[in-house]
Amino acid sequence: MALRRALLRSVEISPDRKRRARLLVIGNGRKIEIGLGVESEGGIFWLGWGARGRLNGIVETAAVEYFHSLSRAQPARSFNGAGLCPASRSFSTQAATTSSTPQPPPPPPPPEKTHFGGLKDEDRIFTNLYGLHDPFLKGAMKRGDWHRTKDLVLKGADWIVNEMKKSGLRGRGGAGFPSGLKWSFMPKVSDGRPSYLVVNADESEPGTCKDREIMRHDPHKLLEGCLIAGVGMRASAAYIYIRGEYVNERLNLEKARQEAYAAGLLGKNACGSGYDFDVHIHFGAGAYICGEETALLESLEGKQGKPRLKPPFPANAGLYGCPTTVTNVETVAVSPTILRRGPEWFASFGRKNNSGTKLFCISGHVNKPCTVEEEMSIPLKELLERHCGGVRGGWDNLLAVIPGGSSVPLLPKHICDDVLMDYDALKAVQSGLGTAAVIVMDKSTDVVDAIARLSYFYKHESCGQCTPCREGTPWLWMIMERLKVGNAKLEEIDMLQEVTKQIEGHTICALGDAAAWPVQGLIRHFRPELERRIRERAERELVAASA
Fold first, then answer.
1. Compositional bias (Low complexity) at which positions (predicted)?
2. CA–CA separation, 247 vs 249, rounded Å?
């Protein structure tokens, strides 16, 4: 039987009216095919087949509805007379009248991943994390660093930023802001001021030591990442601000920097790409507050390390008043591997919005404290048992865990049983991933004393610029010292909670929040322990007074 073709609808799909969408029905009187094509000077550019059925009014009505759904779903697809978009096929008008072979349905989406962890060695980014191999240029190149870096640079800033956005990488310094988006805030067109990349290597958070391992065992990964990130931000130079106590790490990084300059990988015409990029290394003097990005910039300029008011944000007025992005060591160091292996590879690890691999530094009461690279969203219990030999004395001996460095609230054992190690899961249980510094406390720990010690740390490290922090952190510490021995009244627990709320969110930088959150976590989960100490001391004093 001869094939018939019917034109059901022809509608303009471009403002200039040079292209029209055609809904075609092709059949032999019994079975039909319905397809959508775009008519232009080069013929019909076929989008695909639709419903199949008998050639009657019902089918035609369904076909028109199908056309409308497609035209709404694909308003921005572009075509020209010379070729097709990648997902389309080209047919002449004649071919459309004789072909009736339906397109196969698209493959179903892959099943959603439900188990995380057990990262394979071939998927690890930091392959010299434990210093078993040569950390310098020769060893780094054997491990794949600086491999075809020129090709990555030549792809340009927009490509680099878009790939980082696709990867889903979030800042590894604690805040978890999407890195690709942050890099895109830098100006696309220079107004005459240079742009800078500043790498925050002032790793001073108690319990955190991941960046230290990168700088002393994989320094070239950081330097290559500086070049890649700098190109993405259109920066002319990078400044690496290292914690003052990290002497060996600074020496290793300086040696690696000298090697990179000697090999033409940095400096003028970096990697032969035609892009000039310098890296400078600066070390601080041990002030925790200089880990805050604007305080770091102040210190880098030779001023007191005190946070700036925002706005203006560093992307508009940062180092020396120029556009600047401040980012973490780990965030920068993973970027070359992401670009080489593809953003889809990186995004395949972890849950949605919590992509990639992550360095976890685990300390405290575990059998084998370590820093390890693992998949995001790994269960906390699996992380400790797989890499640390479990909690000292067994899992049932666990009291609490601080999951992300000293500034996040602790979690008691019953939450640790099931919690996943990623941003969203920990936020849901009123804590945070932070720097992924896991501090484990078993039942031998005096948890009140532990939080009191952290309160002293934040009191000591406050710069004193903001009144709530300057006056509030000593109060937190003094009350915690009294609660440690029960020398307080029950109502003072609520007063302590109120003090934390007066500090939280009322300071220029996040140090006030960091001081308040550990105390809030203690009250939330261990209030009965605080009340027990107060009652027992009151009973002892009563007995002593009556004796």
1. 92-101
2. 5
Residues 342 and 378 in one domain: no
**Tokens standing for 397?**
């001996």
Can you give the CATH number for the domain in which 464 is found?
1.20.1440.230
Which of 262, 258, 231 minimizes the C-alpha distance to 339?
231
Write down the mean pLDDT value for the chain.
Answer: 84
For residue 374, list its beta bridge partners.
358
* 111 has a pLDDT exceeding 80: no
Choose among 91, 80, 74: nearest CA to 24.
91
Rounded-to-integer distance, Cα 204 and Cα 198, Å:
17
- CA dist., res. 221 & res. 497, Å (int): 44
- Tokens at residue 285, please? 């003097």
Same domain for 529 and 402: no
pLDDT of residue 104: 78
Q: What is the pTM of this model?
A: 0.78
* 352 lies in some domain: no
Quickly list H helices, 417-466. Answer: 423-428, 447-461
Q: What is the pLDDT of residues 204-229, one digit of tens each?
A: 999 999 999 999 999 999 999 999 99
Q: Among the three residues 419, 442, 465, which one is the final residue of a domain in this structure?
A: 442
Domain count, the chain: 4
Token match 């008008």: residue? 93
Structure tokens at 217: 């065992």
What lies within 8 Å, CB to CB, of 138 at 6+ separation is none
**In the beta sheet, which residues pair with residue 109?**
none
Tell me how many helices (H) and strands (E) the chain has.
19, 14
Comparing C-alpha atoms, which of 116, 180, 113 is closest to residue 380? 116
pLDDT recorded at residue 368: 96
What is residue 376's predicted lDDT score, i.e. its pLDDT?
Answer: 94
495 in the same domain as 381: no
DSSP secondary-structure letter at 78?
Answer: -
How confident is the model over 450-503, as pLDDT tens digits? 999 999 999 999 999 999 999 999 999 999 999 999 999 999 999 999 999 999
Radius of gyration of the chain measured on its C-alpha atoms: 30
Which CATH number belongs to the domain containing residue 368 in this structure? 3.10.20.600
- Structure tokens of 512? 């006030």
Q: Can you name the residues that pair with 398 across neighbouring β-strands?
A: 442
Query: Which of 385, 412, 442 is a domain's end point?
Result: 442
d(CA 175, CA 427): 12
* Domain range for 395: 357-442
Same domain, 431 and 460: no
Name the DSSP class of 59: H
Helix (H) or strand (E) holding 503: helix 491-503
Phi-psi region of 185 (alpha: psi -120 to 50; beta: other; left: phi over 0): alpha
Beta-carbon contacts of 220 under 8 Å, excluding residues fewer than 6 positions away, are 135, 136, 137, 140, 141, 145, 146, 256, 259, 260
Output the CA–CA distances (angstroms, integers) from residue 503 to 206, 480, 513, 517, 519, in the order listed: 20, 15, 7, 10, 12
